Amino acid sequence: MANARQEREQKQGDAERTFAAVLAERILRGERVTVFTGAGMSTESGLPDFRSPQGLWKDRDPRELATLWALERNPEAFREFYRWRIETLLVVQPNQGHHILAEWERRGIVRCIITQNVDGLHGMAGSRNVIPLHGDLRSLRCVRCRKEYGAELFLERHDCPDCDGALRPNVVLFGENLPERAMEEAEEAAASGGLFLVLGSSLTVSPANWYPRLARTSGAFLAIVNAEPTPLDDLAHAVSRRAITEELRDVDALLHDAGSEGGR
To answer: pTM of the full predicted structure?
Structure first.
């Protein structure tokens, strides 16, 4: 009873402050952050979400294209889809939010980033401890000899230069399991407590959306930034509908202000 009452009182107190202020206060108390990012993190870099109703593939179901079945039975549609995704990927850059998270990692604030994204933007921004649940679109592999290549090769050819096997992006296709090692690392991070920060995920894709639940039941402070409601909003301690970059910028400014005051 006491714990439930304390949590209600904490939520009421948090509601009276801004989302950024709540997060900054917890970080300044020494809570390390595990970040979980989804497509919304990348759309702020101008990378289109192919699932959106306004996306280029609004008339085609990506679940029919991004599959092993399509790779084997409808290779032209598969290649067209991934050529578009790779072409789009190669012209985008990390946004300010990516750079803030990378700086927080360097300062010891961010423990790791668990990401549903395959665009590699976190790594480009300088983040090192990134767990890519769904793979890496910036690389290819041969289905026969398993040799890996840069994604740019897919714009030129679709067969392996070494063995003539079919090339495919190094991502998890619909119907495939997530990489076992990535899942284990994500589980360990989610269960480590502290602050679990969800950025730009609808939290509707399984099994990835299990990690915020695990974090919550493991005692972490769960905070969600997403433009639309998610199924886990009621479990979260704090929720924001603002743009991710704006929210991270405000938290970062509060952290810098606190550091400046401490140094006077």
So the answer is: 0.89
